[in-house]
Amino acid sequence: MPEVRYRPATLQDAELACDLMNAAHPAMIHDPVMTRYRWETPRRGFEYARFIALKDARPIAFLGWVHGPWAEVPDRHCEVEVWLDLAELDRRLLAEMFTWIGEDAVRQGTRLLLARSFEDAPAVEEVLVSLGYRRARTERIWSLDLIEHGPRLVAEAEEACRMAARQGIELTTLDRWRDPDRLKKLHQLDMTTRQDIPTTLPITREAYEDFVRRTASPDRPPGRYWIALDHDEPVALSYLRYPPVRGTVWTGYTCSHPGYRGRGLARAVKLQTLAQAVELGLPSVQTDNDSENAPMLHINERLGYVRAPGFVEHHKRVDTA
Q1: Element (H or E) spanning 92, and its range?
Q2: CA dist., res. 178 & res. 180, Å (int)
Q3: β-strands 134-145, 306-317 pairing
Q4: Which residues, at least 6 apart from 250, have a Cβ–Cβ distance to it below 8 Å?
Q5: Cα-Cα-Cα-Cα dihedral sign, residues 106, 49, 63, 57
Q6: What are the strands of the beta sheet with 250-256, ordered from one edge?
Q7: How far is CA 148 from CA 234, 271, 273, 283, 301, in A?
Q8: What mean pLDDT is reported for the chain?
Q9: Main-chain phi, psi angles of 217, to 5 degrees
Q10: What are the φ and ψ backbone dihedral angles of 231, each rounded to 5 degrees?
Q11: What does the DSSP assignment read for 269-288?
């Protein structure tokens, strides 16, 4: 087997990394504009490393690791990723790559490695298990056919808007909401609700500046960001992520304030995003949810989403002595 070498990836490699990720798992297409944007706007306090793997001077894989500020990550977990072009798929090579990136992460002080595998890519999970990783959580992916369900979803969105109005709740978009403190209020809602997401590892709180940048990223126009307002307080939100160049449209996040749950508001704002997608002529959208997030799983099933292959989170504790 020809020797594989690794070189650091620069910002100019963002499109190449995107192409390698797409070649590794064509079922989940990455957008080059969004890949570069994420590289250009790192989260405050987070550490990143990115590499291109070369065989005979030819790029065959993208590898990386990322972790939050150690002061905010008591278990010192670090996510590692390997995207090996399917044309080069070999379990020994895949194991070598996960070992190489894992060892590089451990040198940064990591005590727990996190890696993900797709349910329709068993080779990755087999390699991770052989390296001592253990299954921790499952993330479900759902697909919604807007051609089949479009007319019903538009009608349900209209009824949901009327239902919210009867409760004194206004459904509107970010560009129509003129409160000068709207982003601060949304940030607070986002932080409050994300702590309720089922997880094995702690969720690092997002700095306000990072939230503002994420809200303004190229894949989420403010006119497609839906909010439920009780007077001028956001109590639920939902938005779709529209890749600027290529890829599937995804639900970015849907949530409801704990004090307003059980009133159908999360479903109401999600319906507005779906009705808008129907009007834009999109054939389908996708979403993902933790397998233990029962409320959102129930909403997805009622809306007509169909289960697609998801992904599995794997953990490996390491000795850094």
Answers
A1: helix 91-106
A2: 6
A3: antiparallel
A4: 240, 241, 285, 286, 287, 288
A5: negative
A6: 4-8, 47-55, 58-67, 77-84, 112-118, 306-317, 134-145, 284-290, 250-256, 233-241, 225-230, 169-173
A7: 32, 15, 16, 9, 15
A8: 93
A9: -70, 160
A10: 60, -110
A11: HHHHHHHHHHHTT-SEEEEE
**Distance (Å, whole) CA 46 – CA 61:** 23
Cβ neighbours for 118, distance < 8 A, ≥ 6 positions apart: 25, 27, 28, 124, 309, 310, 311, 312
Query: What is the crossing angle of helices 265-279 and 294-303, to 10°?
Result: 40
180/87 Cα distance (integer angstroms): 51
Token reading at 176: 């129509």
Tokens 């439920």, residue?
Answer: 228
Residue with tokens 């497609």: 224
CA 284 to chain centre: 18
Q: In a 3-state reduction of DSSP, which class is residue 201?
A: coil
Q: Quickly state the pLDDT bin for 291 (edges 50, 70, 90).
A: low
The SS3 call for residue 139 is strand
In this structure, what token pair is assigned to residue 122? Answer: 């068993």
Place of tokens 């500046």: 209
Tokens of 301: 């099933």
Q: Is 141 helix (H, G, I), strand (E, B) or coil?
A: strand
Token pair in block for residue 83: 């995207």
What pLDDT score does 218 carry?
Answer: 96
Please tell me the total number of residues recorded for the chain in this structure.
321
Gap between the Cα atoms of 86 and 93, Å rounded: 12
φ and ψ at residue 111, rounded to 5 degrees: -115, -15
The b-or-e profile of 268-282 (16+ CB within 10 A means b, else e) is bbbbbbbbbbbeeeb
pLDDT in tens, 18-69: 999 999 999 989 999 999 999 999 999 999 999 999 999 999 999 999 999 9
Q: Would you tell me how many other CB atoms lie within 10 Å of the CB of residue 19?
A: 17
Q: Report pTM.
A: 0.91
